Amino acid sequence: MTVLARASEVTRRYGDVLALDRVSLDIRAGELVGLLGPNGAGKSTLISLFAGLRRPSSGTVELLGGSPLDPARRRGIGVTPQETGLPETLRVGEIVDFVRAHFPEPLARAELLARFGLEDLARRQVGGLSGGQRRRLAVALAFVGRPRLVFLDEPTTGLDVEARRTLWDGIRSFHDEGGTVLLTSHYLEEIEALAERVVVVGHGRVLADDTVAAVRDVVGVRKVSLTAAGLPELPGVLSAERHDDGRVDLLTTDPDRLVVELVRSGAAFSGLEIRPTTLEEAFLTLTANPEEIAHV
Length: 296
Ligand SMILES: Nc1ncnc2c1ncn2[C@@H]1O[C@H](COP(=O)(O)OP(=O)(O)OP(=O)(O)O)[C@@H](O)[C@H]1O
Known about the structure:
By secondary structure, this protein is an alpha/beta fold. It has helices spanning 43-50, 71-74, 92-100, 109-115, 131-141, 161-176, 188-194, 212-219, 255-265, 279-288; strands at 3-14, 17-28, 32-36, 58-63, 77-80, 149-153, 180-185, 197-202, 205-211, 222-227, 237-242, 247-252, 270-276.
């Protein structure tokens, strides 16, 4: 499959801060990739390198078969950074037209606005939009030029559930038509809802690069949930959380052993359930213990 963006052994420093540490990553045509990692992991830095906004300290970055610094290559991508500033006095439709003017075959204004649920706002000044409406507009603008590849840095931060779903639909329809997307998110449900592939970054390194299901399997953490008044110390518990209703959630990589030890301890319990962890739980485990998954 065609590689649209490639980072090879990329390191990026800001003074003494090592933001990316020998990162290698391919984004192939037609993929929808979720980039997941805690604050400061290096996600935004990686996007800025792919988009040609910064250069790596060492290693190489390719975009659409050439240098990301080449304006012709950059015209083939769309980017929405984490923060955007749009002129307050322009109307939504005017901004869309302004951006459209930079591309040879832009999407029609009405089509773009409809895709992102903005059709009723075309005549509204940007200064009068809510934060969520501005964010939807900023994301929509990445799609104006019919890009081959779109980079979205936390596209739905600050959006309510409905606005988030509208944006997801817009991103999905682009992907369904063959578009390629790399998005970062702190909303783990967003990665699960949209992405087929998840790249987990932490401390400037790629910790895992696989399907959402495989990343969960790599971690292999299961949640053992039960109701008990009190529990003895049990082996292999990564974390324990007690809820107000008396239920206790225990995270472990070896639920069989945990249950055997629980029964052996003679502690009274009821309502035992064992289930896979959510991506969020897997993610927290991955980023908390990078040395444990160095083999991934
Ligand atoms: N311009 C800069 N000058 C100095 N340090 C920077 C700069 N930009 C980023 N950093 C540092 O580089 C590291 C990676 O930052 P980056 O913004 O890429 O992380 P991130 O994963 O996008 O985080 P977040 O989820 O908070 O957006 C952090 O330690 C950050 O403080």
